[in-house]
Design goal:
28% helix; two-stranded antiparallel ribbon; globular; three-stranded parallel sheet; 123 residues
């Protein structure tokens, strides 16, 4: 998925992110995907059949953090990244690598990353 274009240039060109609010997110925020699909076959879930498919594919950690670091082109006031992936936490080693890479990147702490679902193991 690294070959796909980033969403941040589209946001910069077409949106004023300060005009969009999410009640549970810090303002202003941006929302984007780091992966698509789901390898699980949950009988109750229709997303793989209607949206992303069962083949799980992701952007590299480096690619995601590079886009996050480029956020200054959108707004210096950006406070949060919302990972809209349905299955971001399905691969915990990748989430841990993403968190570590972001923490050690050139500009951590100025905007908080938040997954759609918390990173925890389902029992």
């Amino acid at each position: 998925m690294d070959a796909l274009p980033w969403v941040t240039p589209v946001y910069k060109r077409d949106l004023k992110i300060e005009n969009y609010f999410g009640g549970y997110l810090q303002h202003p925020y941006i929302s984007f995907y780091t992966g698509r699909g789901c390898k699980s076959r949950c009988t109750f879930c229709l997303w793989p059949q209607t949206v992303g498919g069962h083949r799980y594919r992701v952007r590299s950690v480096e690619n995601v953090v590079e886009e996050m670091n480029g956020r200054r082109t959108l707004s210096r006031r950006l406070k949060e990244f919302f990972f809209d992936d349905d299955t971001l936490t399905d691969n915990l080693p990748r989430v841990e690598a993403l968190a570590k890479e972001w923490a050690s990147s050139e500009s951590p702490g100025r905007a908080t990353p938040r997954p759609m679902f918390p990173a925890r193991r389902w029992q």
